[in-house]
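R.M. (postdoc): so does anyone remember the format we settled on? I'll just put the C-alpha cells first.
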C-alpha cells in the first residue's frame, strides 16, 4: 500500500469535512452575512488554525446561561417528572 495515497485521501477527507461543517455552523448562527463569509474564508484557507481561532473568537456566545430552560421546557419537564413519580 502506498502511504502517500492513503494520507492524501485522509487530508482530502478532513478538508471536505471542515468545509461542510464550517458552512453548517456558520450559517446556523444568526449573524451578519459579511461576517459569515469572512469566517468561511478563514476556515477554508486555514482549516486547523482557522477552526481554533473560530472557537476562541468567532462563536456568538449568549449572555444567558446555555442551560437555562424556557418556561415551556420547564413545565414539560415538571409534567414528565410528576408522571414518572406517580406511576
Amino acid at each position: 500500500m502506498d502511504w502517500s495515497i492513503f494520507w492524501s485521501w485522509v487530508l482530502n477527507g478532513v478538508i471536505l469535512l471542515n468545509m461542510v461543517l464550517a458552512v453548517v455552523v456558520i450559517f446556523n448562527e444568526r449573524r451578519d452575512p459579511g461576517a459569515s463569509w469572512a469566517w468561511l474564508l478563514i476556515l477554508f484557507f486555514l482549516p486547523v488554525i482557522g477552526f481554533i481561532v473560530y472557537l476562541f473568537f468567532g462563536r456568538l456566545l449568549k449572555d444567558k446561561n446555555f442551560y437555562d430552560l424556557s418556561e415551556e421546557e420547564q413545565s414539560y419537564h415538571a409534567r414528565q417528572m410528576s408522571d414518572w413519580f406517580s406511576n
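R.M.: ...and that's the designed sequence above, right after the C-alpha cells. Also worth knowing: The radius of gyration is 21 Å. Residues 3-86 form one domain.
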